[in-house]
Amino acid sequence: MSTLSTTLAQRGKLAVAAFAFSAAFLGSACGPKYPKCEQDEDCKAGEFCVDNMCQKCRTDADCSTGQACNAGACEDIPGYCDTNTKCPEGQECVANRCQSPRSEPLEREAPAPTAGCQLQTVYFGFDSANLESSARDVIAKNAQCMREKNMSGVRITGHTDPRGTEEYNLALGDRRARSVEQYMSSLGVERGKLNSTSMGEEVARGEDESGWGQDRKVEFTQK
């Protein structure tokens, strides 16, 4: 090969190398093609490079008031407000949200004084659990008192005088309590509000007929 040919070949190789270098340099200088990016400067003014893509926002702080950053775009927050004028009619702005106004709790009137009724004791005849007419009247008043005072429950306790065995008196006191409970139920008092029990002669105090008459009873106690 002649010297001239060799020289031309060398010059051609140099030109190709120079072209390749220039292309690489220019490509590097131009950066990634929009909207791809490597840094914020690769994006348009006001945009941000997020995950190598130009986006309108990176965080909520990049958005206007009342907007949030969602997948790189600023979107209006539903129901957002900063004044009542931005809310629909009948709503008000509370904590930057349009809400229906809360109704103020009405002041409750003080309950009318309850009549001073008291649960009264029912008395029985000797060795009896039968309800006399006077006992029925007392039970009816107690049932009415429970309703007036809205009592949640009453304990009905049967008692006896000290005569007789302990076992017999416990059974007699139980019959008296159940007799009263049954009659109150017939007057409309819920069974679930009544609880009957017997004390028998345990708290008897009488020493003669006058005192024993006070021992033969059923007492009512509000639970």
Outline type: rod-shaped
Q: What low-confidence regions span 5 or more consecutive residues with pLDDT below 50?
A: 24-28, 103-108
Structural class assignment: alpha+beta
Instruction: Name the beta content range.
Output: 15-25%
Strand order of the largest sheet: 7-10-8-9
Secondary structure: number of strands:
10
Largest sheet: 4 strands, mixed
What's the CATH architecture of the largest domain? 2-Layer Sandwich
Average of the residue pLDDT scores: 82
Work out the helix count.
Answer: 4
Fold-level CATH name of the largest domain: 60s Ribosomal Protein L30, Chain: A
Tally the structural domains: 2
CATH class of the largest domain: Alpha Beta
Q: What is the distance, rounded to the nearest whole angstrom, between the alpha carbons of the first and last residues?
A: 125 Å
List keywords for this structure.
223 residues; alpha+beta; 60s Ribosomal Protein L30, Chain: A; 32% helix; 18% strand
